[in-house]
Write a structure and sequence with these properties.
mainly alpha
């Protein structure tokens, strides 16, 4: 028991915690990106332009997608925990925790389980955008500026995506020239880009230290 306490104490030291936080964010983001690519590749007839991202969680690739997005949420929560331990700034870890809970909820409640799926998706995207914006305090320029831009982009495009919620499968209705699948990705991918970049930044920051 004493060895376990010593191990946990070492892990939560500021330097180790920063490195672990970045590692969890980086791994979580990359595995979800690859998970989506795999699911899209093996879903016959799936269109990333027309179909919702979460449609990957209700078809033949349901196991791949749902496990991957659940793992994303788990890794984000773990990263948020160690970020909380390594910094006196509490807002971003709290926002990230809610985002992670939302992502895990997306994996537990696929797109055909409503309204839980929509609630979980809203938590994941909105709090992911808020997390990116608030993370400027954990980064120096130009990364802090990039984080604000990516978070703001995701927030604005998430609001623009609201009219697409509930459209019938296969609907090709467009807004700004984009069908629902494309616009949804424009709302999600800035967060994904940020979480991977933020993870790498935290790991690099510790290496420099």
């Amino acid at each position: 028991m004493s060895k376990l306490r010593i191990t946990l104490s070492n892990l939560t030291k500021q330097g180790n915690a920063t490195n672990l936080s970045g590692s969890f964010f980086l791994i979580g983001g990359i595995q979800w990106f690859l998970g989506m690519l795999a699911a899209e590749s093996w879903y016959d007839g799936y269109s990333s332009r027309i179909d919702y991202v979460s449609d990957l969680g209700t078809g033949p690739t349901a196991l791949i997608y749902n496990l991957s997005v659940f793992a994303l949420g788990f890794f984000v929560i773990c990263g948020a925990f160690f970020l909380y331990k390594s910094s006196e700034r509490r807002l971003t870890p709290i926002l990230l925790t809610v985002c992670g809970i939302g992502a895990m909820g997306v994996g537990v409640f696929p797109g055909d389980v409503q309204p839980m799926h929509s609630i979980a998706t809203l938590l994941a995207i909105m709090f992911g955008a808020f997390s990116a914006i608030s993370s400027y305090r954990h980064q120096t320029k130009p990364m802090s500026i990039i984080a604000i831009i990516l978070g703001s982009m995701s927030f604005v495009l998430s609001i623009a995506f609201f009219p697409y919620l509930g459209l019938a499968p296969g609907s090709t209705e467009t807004f700004m020239g984009m069908a629902k699948g494309s616009l949804e990705r424009w709302a999600i991918n800035p967060i994904l880009a940020w979480i991977i970049g933020f993870g790498g930044y935290l790991m690099g920051k510790q290496t420099e230290a």
